[in-house]
């Protein structure tokens, strides 16, 4: 019995030693890899001093035996390679996630095949290059493989067909060439297949027809041969399909054809379709009405094709539609009116078509709208007042390049608006003071995506930026701006505009704006683009403009501005004289016309009359003086009316002053006047005094005409 106890104790010690040796092997491998990285500040917990507590290190999860089973280090700025990591020392690893470390470079080592228990591998969003090692096919337990958004090259290895347990395969945004391997058809458990944005060629293999459990299929932006195989219509569980950028041609209704040339695509066989993207192709013809039957459709993007004719009248019947992207086609006619129910739309892009009619009344009940782009069409008429209060969540509003007229409605409830483009229309009247209600423009924005329950769609918008039309997508959150150029707006620039401190660009050019540039224009410290050209602005350029250190584009040409151009470090970089052309009264750098240095000019350059503040002060001073005179006059009159003693005293003093005047006139005989003339004057004056004395002090209470003497 005692011998058995010793055997058991011996085996326990042996197991403990082997466990400790294994732990040290794992920690040593990780510490050696850490030492190869550049400044791994997020891995400070990885140290030799607490190597026995490696399971508490950042990003590490262990099992019950203290073996490392998960290594999760996404988005922490890793800088180095992964081929210095000894994968053989991590045999129990099931999850490896190094995604989003853009400075992680190099290739995937062949030794990754040692991770035989690996279930999930995510190396997306890094700077990895080279080809995919064929040994990756040995990881037969893999269910999730994401190598997207790297710089991988070469062909997709056929060994990938060995990963028969794969549920998700993502190879998007790389540089893979060659054809889609037929072996992918063996991955019959696949739910998600992302092959978009590569350089793949050849036909879409028929073997993909076996992927009957597919929910997401992305083949976009490749050079694959068309037509699209009809078997895709048999993927009854398909929720998302992206066929963008495949050079698809012909009519939309004939897009999916069978081997006999007949239409075999039936959207009714895809009841779960939620996201359909076929943008950037050459499809033409009208939009088939069968789209209206896709009750589950959430996002539809058919932009940048050659589709034409009117939108189907049933268009607003798509019950679940949130994102409708139809821009840059040839659609014509009026936007359909609502037949009652409106879908829960978040984003509408109908820009750059040939649509006509007034502002679509069907949108009035789309209270959740975030993006509305109707720009570059032929829409006309006045903007309804409800635009200003119907869309409390609206962030992007583009009506540019239409024929809208009338005044800009009051912007009462558009507090979240960050981009307002009304340029190139026929708007009249003044810029509404309610523009100050756009409080989201007081700070820089942080959003760039519209999120749905299962899908994230990156928004994009085109604007005129520094004279060029640019499309903003990844950096859309940075765009905070207003463009009201090329209209017929009048009046002054409202001071409320300078309270939108987050503005990145402001374009009010080609209008009929008058008065001066607001003196506190310098409060717009984020401003990079300012165009006030071709107006009737007058007065001096505010000195505060020189404090906008981010200003890289400025155009004040063709106004009536005068005085010295303000100086400043940023203004010195804006050295093109054309910025100020057409303002004959301007002088100073960068113009050839030097400013006068007399005292009046110097005094004028240091006096801020930008908003007629001095003139207003003079008006107020005159008003206060007149108010004081009127108040004093009526106060005196009231006292004399109510106080008989004061009234008598006041008029007695007038009598005394009159007697002194008569004495002065008598003494004027030395100046050549005859005594008779003087006597006549005295008699006349006496008579006047008597009359004044009779009327000066009546008893107001009894209306008596008794004289007071």
Automatic annotation (TrEMBL):
Pfam families: LRR_1, LRR_14, LRR_8, LRRNT_2
Compartment list: Membrane
GO molecular function, one term: kinase activity
Gene3D superfamilies listed in its UniProt record: Ribonuclease Inhibitor
Domain of life: Eukaryota
UniProt KW keywords: Kinase, Leucine-rich repeat, Membrane, Receptor, Repeat, Signal, Transferase, Transmembrane, Transmembrane helix
Domain Leucine-rich repeat-containing N-terminal plant-type: 25-63
Keyword Transmembrane: yes
Membrane topology: Single-pass membrane protein
Principal subcellular localisation of the protein: membrane
GO cellular component: membrane
SUPFAM superfamilies named in the record: L domain-like (SSF52058)
Signal peptide: 1-23
Ligase found in the keyword field: no
Annotated transmembrane regions: 618-642
Domain Disease resistance R13L4/SHOC-2-like LRR: from-to ranges: 85-195
Protein name: Leucine-rich receptor-like protein kinase family protein
Organism the protein comes from: Rhynchospora pubera
